[in-house]
Amino acid sequence: QVQLVESGGGEVQAGGSLRLSCAASRSINNFASMGWYRQAPGKQRELVATISSGGSTNYGDSVKGRFTVSRDNAKNTVYLQMNRLKPEDTAVYYCSGVVVVNVEGATRTHWGQGTQVTVSS
Fold first, then answer.
1. Residues 67, 81 contacting (CB under 8 angstroms)
2. For residues 69 and 83, what is the distance between their CA atoms, to the nearest angstrom?
3. What's the rounded Cα separation, in Å, for the pair 48 and 57?
4. Which of 2, 11, 41, 107 satisfies CB 3.0 to 4.6 Å to 118 for a cystine?
5. Strands (DSSP E) along the chain, which ranges?
6. What is the per-residue pLDDT for 2?
7. How far is residue 18's CA from residue 121's CA, in Å, rounded to a whole number?
C-alpha cells in the first residue's frame, strides 16, 4: 500500500522555475532510492533525477545543471527544484520509489500518479 503523491506542477514561462514535491505514505528511509521521471506525448518515459538512501544523486543529461533533487526525511518528501525551464521540459512528471524486496537485491518500483508541467515561450 505504498502511495506516492506528486504536487507542484503547473504552467510557467521559459526561463522560470517550479518545485515539485513527492509525498510518501511511509518513511522514505525504506526506499533504496527515490526520483523523478517524465513523459511527453509520443515519447518514452525518461530519467530526470534520482537520489539514493545514501544521498547520491543522478540526473538525466537534458536537465543537468538546471534541476536539483533533494529530500526531507522528516516530512517523507522528495523535491525536484526546476530552474531555467525550457519548452522541451513540458511533460507529465512522475515520482518513483525503489524498494529492495529480497536478499539477492531484487527491487520493486512504485510510481505516483504524475503532475503536469507546461513550459511556454
1. yes
2. 12
3. 11
4. 11
5. 4-7, 10-13, 18-24, 33-39, 46-52, 57-59, 67-72, 77-82, 91-100, 107-111, 115-120
6. 87
7. 15
